[in-house]
C-alpha cells in the first residue's frame, strides 16, 4: 500500500472514530433503563470494513478493454475499498423511525472515488399489531431466491456473487395488514405501496412522470409460504409474479419464483456496432431452488434461474466481438458508440449475468473439523447458454469480538466471447475485515 493510500485510509478510520465517539456521547446523555422497556427506545449499529483486492488482469477480456481503452494498461489490478455502514432506529410509542447510510471510498486505477448513499430513511406508524404504515425510503425484500429474485419488482438487483450485501431502497408510501387464523390458512398479509418516479425521487427506476402501485399478498397455507405480487404500468410495463417455499423435511427446503413482464425492453446492436432499435416483447422469468442442511452443519443450496429479459447468446457474443473490434482499431470513438453508459454494471450487455439461463451452487460448512468460529464456503455461478462459469472458495473467521474476517477468491473460466471468458480478470483475491459496533 502506498504512503498516500495509507494516509487516506487513516483519515477514513479517524473520521469513523470521531463519529463513533460522538454517538457514544449521545447515547450516554439519552440513556434508558433496559429493564423498563421491551425494546430499546434508541438503537445504533453499524460496521466499518476494509477490503484489499488483488486481481490478475485478463487483457483479452471485453470488460477489461471497456475499462482500459482510454488509460494505461496494467497486468495487475489492485483495489482498496473502505466502507462505513451506519443504522439507527428510534421508537416512541406507536411511531418509529429508521435511518441507514452507506459510504465507500475506493482507491484503484481510477484514483480515489467516493460514494455516500442514503439506503433507508423512513417513518413507521403502528397503531395496531396487525397494521403498519411506512413513509420514506425503504428497501423492500420480495422473493424466496438467494442469488436472484425475478419477483423483486420494487428493488434494486442483487449481486449474485455476494447476495447478502445491503441494497439501497426506493422512496415509497406503504401499509402492511396482517391477520392470523386457526385452520389450514394460518396467516394472511397484504402489503400495498405507492412508488413515485420523477426528477426528484426514484429517477433511476425508469422514465419519469409516473406513480406506481405495487402490492404483495402473503399466505401461510398448510405450512406453504405463498406470495402474489403486482406492479402497475408506468416507468416499466405491468409486472405480475408469485413465489413459494416449503420444507419437504426438517432440513430440506424447496423454493421458487415466477414473474411475467409486459413490454419488456431488449436492447440491440446494429451491424456496425451501434445501439440499435429496442425490441419490445412480453417475457417471463422464473427460479427454482433447493436448500439442504446436513447433520454436520453443511448447507447446500442449488438454484436454476431463467431470465426472459436477458440477452440471447448470439446477441451477447456480438457485443463482445464489437468491443474487440474497437480495441484492435485503437479508436476511442468506437467504444463511445457502444451501448454501455458510464456504469458498466448497469449496461444492457456489460452488467452482471446479462443472459438467460443460469445455475447457482453454494455450500457453507460451519466449524469444519471442529475448528471453532470458522466457516468454509464454496460457490459457483454457471452460464448454461455459453457454458462459462466462475468458482468462488471462501473462508470466514469470527473468533474475535465484533470482528469478522473473510478471505475469498474468484476464478472465472470460459471460452472467448463467453460471459466469464470476457471478465476483466483471470482471478481475484479479496480480504474483508469487518468490525461491527
Descriptive account of the structure:
The chain is mostly beta strands and 437 residues long. Helix content is 13%, strand content 51%. It has helices at residues 3-29, 62-68, 313-329, 332-336, and strands at residues 42-57, 76-92, 95-108, 111-128, 131-138, 170-180, 185-197, 210-221, 224-231, 239-249, 252-266, 279-293, 298-307, 357-366, 374-383, 388-400, 403-413, 425-436. The chain has an 18-stranded antiparallel barrel. A hairpin with a 2-residue loop joins strand 10 and strand 11 (252-266).
Multimeric organization = single chain
> How would a textbook summarize the main sheet?
18 strands, antiparallel, barrel
Helicity, as a percent range = 10-25%
Question: How much of the residues is beta strand, in percent?
Answer: over 45%
* Uncertain segments: 1-32
Distance between the termini: 26 Å
| Tally of contiguous helical segments | 4
Using only C-alpha atoms, the radius of gyration works out to 23 Å
How do the SSEs run, as a string of H and E? HEHEEEEEEEEEEEEHHEEEEE
Amino acid at each position: 500500500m502506498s504512503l498516500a493510500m495509507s494516509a487516506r485510509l487513516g483519515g477514513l478510520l479517524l473520521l469513523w472514530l470521531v463519529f463513533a465517539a460522538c454517538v457514544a456521547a449521545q447515547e450516554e446523555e439519552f440513556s434508558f433503563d433496559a429493564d423498563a422497556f421491551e425494546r430499546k427506545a434508541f438503537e445504533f449499529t453499524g460496521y466499518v470494513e476494509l477490503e484489499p483486492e488483488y486481481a490478475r488482469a485478463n487483457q483479452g477480456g471485453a470488460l477489461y478493454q471497456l475499462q482500459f481503452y482510454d488509460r494505461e494498461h496494467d497486468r495487475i489490478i489492485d483495489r482498496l475499498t473502505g466502507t462505513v455502514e451506519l443504522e439507527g432506529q428510534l421508537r416512541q410509542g406507536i411511531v418509529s423511525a429508521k435511518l441507514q447510510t452507506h459510504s465507500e471510498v475506493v482507491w484503484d486505477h481510477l484514483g480515489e472515488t467516493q460514494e455516500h448513499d442514503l439506503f433507508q430513511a423512513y417513518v413507521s406508524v403502528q397503531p395496531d399489531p396487525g397494521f403498519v404504515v411506512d413513509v420514506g425510503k425503504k428497501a423492500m425484500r420480495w422473493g424466496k431466491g438467494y442469488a436472484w429474485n425475478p419477483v423483486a419488482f420494487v428493488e434494486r438487483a442483487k449481486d449474485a456473487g455476494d447476495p447478502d450485501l445491503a441494497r439501497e431502497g426506493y422512496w415509497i408510501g406503504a401499509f402492511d395488514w396482517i391477520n392470523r387464523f386457526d385452520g389450514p390458512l394460518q396467516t394472511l398479509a397484504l402489503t400495498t405501496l405507492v412508488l413515485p418516479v420523477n426528477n426528484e425521487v426514484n429517477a433511476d427506476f425508469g422514465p419519469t412522470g409516473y406513480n406506481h402501485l405495487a402490492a404483495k399478498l402473503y399466505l401461510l397455507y398448510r405450512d406453504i409460504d405463498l406470495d402474489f405480487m403486482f406492479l402497475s404500468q408506468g416507468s416499466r410495463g405491468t409486472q405480475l409474479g408469485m413465489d413459494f417455499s416449503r420444507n419437504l423435511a426438517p432440513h430440506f427446503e424447496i423454493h421458487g419464483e415466477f414473474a411475467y413482464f409486459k413490454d419488456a425492453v431488449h436492447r440491440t446492436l446494429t451491424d456496425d456496432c451501434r445501439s440499435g432499435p429496442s425490441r419490445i416483447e412480453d417475457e417471463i422469468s422464473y427460479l427454482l431452488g433447493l436448500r439442504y442442511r446436513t447433520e454436520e452443519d453443511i448447507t447446500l443450496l442449488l438454484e436454476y434461474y431463467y431470465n426472459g429479459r436477458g440477452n440471447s447468446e448470439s446477441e451477447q457474443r456480438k457485443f463482445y466481438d464489437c468491443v474487440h473490434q474497437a480495441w484492435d482499431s485503437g479508436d476511442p470513438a468506437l467504444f463511445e458508440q457502444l451501448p454501455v453508459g458510464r456504469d458498466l454494471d448497469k449496461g444492457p450487455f456489460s452488467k452482471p449475468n446479462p443472459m438467460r439461463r443460469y445455475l447457482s451452487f453454494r455450500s457453507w460448512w460451519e466449524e469444519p473439523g471442529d475448528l471453532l468460529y470458522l466457516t468454509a464456503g464454496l460457490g459457483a455461478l454457471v452460464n448454461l447458454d455459453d457454458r462459462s462459469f466462475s468458482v468462488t472458495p471462501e473462508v470466514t473467521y469470527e473468533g474475535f469480538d465484533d470482528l469478522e474476517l473473510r478471505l475469498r477468491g474468484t476464478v472465472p473460466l470460459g471460452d472467448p466471447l463467453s460471459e466469464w471468458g470476457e471478465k476483466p480478470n483471470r482471478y481475484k483475491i479479496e480480504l474483508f475485515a469487518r468490525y461491527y459496533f
